[in-house]
Specification:
Length: 52
């Protein structure tokens, strides 16, 4: 199996595309820094984010 100790806890970098109500953020890939073949687009709260 995979060793969870060595696995990264965070993925990134991403950019905040939009600020929503109730302290939520729309997060998208930074052009040129795509981690996967599919574009990333999600809504997150600040406790799930970390400065890069």
């Amino acid at each position: 199996g995979e060793d969870k100790k060595l696995k990264s806890k965070y993925k990134g970098p991403y950019m905040v595309a939009k600020v929503l109500n109730k302290n939520r953020f729309v997060i998208k890939d930074i052009p040129g820094f795509n981690i996967s073949s599919k574009p990333y687009d999600s809504v997150l709260s600040p406790d799930r984010m970390k400065l890069w």
